[in-house]
Amino acid sequence: MYIQASGCANVLQLRRTVQIYKKLRYNYRLLSRRQKIFSLGILTKCKKLKQLSLNLLNQGGDSSLKEIVATETLEELIILRQDKLTGSFLTNLRTNLKTLIFVNCYSLLIENILSVADRLTALTRLELNYNSINTLQNVHLLLDKTPNLERLSLEYYKNNLRSPWIKLGNELPTAIGRLSRLRELCLQNNDFVTDEWLTTVARGCPALRSVDLGRTWVHERGLLALCRERPELVELVVSTPFVKDEDLEACARHCAGLELLDVSYSHRLPKTLPARLAWPRARPLRLRMYDVLKEKTEVHYEGITLLWDKPRRCSWPD
Q1: What is the pLDDT of residues 38-62, one digit of tens each?
Q2: Hey, which residues does 5 pair with through a beta bridge?
């Protein structure tokens, strides 16, 4: 379990700050070994709390957070890996949040977020990853009330035993397509993404610059439609068995300003992809082929910079 806030380096420093200054100034992290000497109640005395991140919280669920979010200064709220949290504590929210993230909160009810939609109109970053399928089915109702979104992540919704082959309508891609300020979209590990989704989203999001389609089931038709509609893309992540190297070449030519192409885990792609994408560019294209190219090569490809690090997961906040 760890907690981050705009606060102190450790529990003792936090207590001292609360007692003396009654406000937080720096970041702190609490590990599980300190959990016994820390109570979330102490955060209620931090009257200028701006950022709060809770991971593996097990101190009372929703009830333990009601007083904390009632602060007048809270701007960022991040909840990670809390299976029993429903989000009912949000009714005490007083401020207009700029960042809201729920990851792996399977009991989260989208209705509880919708109940405070009037306090989310300034939201610029929303991540609802690896929650119940109910969240994905109804998140379009929330998107219609958050027109200022710039970063959206709906990661890891799978057709499995928990959600046996559920089909979604057009409400979600249509709602995403109305987000005129959206710059970054992550749909990694989302089984419900279709080619039609990409076409709808691309046509409606003129500010879109980064799209993550890692481990989805999109085909070349949707990917090419995305790149034709949004030639301004600078980052593209794609991992699907239905896209070939010639499709990726076409995407790179449509998006002349592309700076990052990540095709990690695309095992059906040939190792000759870098050569196919090699041509003069104003800025080198950073190409990541993690788990596709097994060994580093010293071969130089014109206009290409090969990346060998493991790709970042969308669902873990900065």
Answers
A1: 456 666 666 677 888 887 665 567 8
A2: 28, 52
The CATH number that applies at residue 295 is 3.80.10.10
Residues 6 or more apart from 134 whose CB is under 8 A from it? Answer: 109, 110
Burial of 60 (0-12, 13-18, 19+ CB in 10 A): middle
Q: Are 36 and 61 in contact (CB under 8 A)?
A: no
Mean pLDDT computed over 282-302:
89
Answer yes or no: are the C-beta atoms of 190 and 157 closer than 8 Å: yes
pLDDT tens figures, 237-289: 999 989 999 999 999 999 999 999 999 999 889 999 999 999 999 889 999 99
Residue 131 lies in a domain: no
CB 273 within 8 A of CB 283: no
pLDDT digits (tens, 9 = 90+) for 75-88: 999 998 888 899 99
CB atoms within 10 A of CB 299: 10
Rounded to whole angstroms, the Cα distance separating 176 from 190 reads: 15
User: What is the separation of C-alpha 18 from the centre of its chain, rounded to a whole number of angstroms?
Assistant: 32
Domain match, 89 and 197 both = no
Compute the distance between CA of residue 202 and CA of residue 258 in angstroms, rounded to an integer. 16
* CB 170 within 8 Å of CB 193: no
Element (H, E) at 247: helix 245-254
Please give the model's pTM, rounded to 2 decimal places: 0.86
Spatial contact of 272 and 248, defined as CB atoms under 8 Å apart: no
* 55 bridge partner residues: 2, 80
Domain encompassing residue 300: 153-318
Inter-helix orientation angle 220-229/245-254, to 10° = 10
* Cα 14 versus chain centre, distance: 30
Angle between helices 195-204 and 220-229 (to 10 degrees): 10
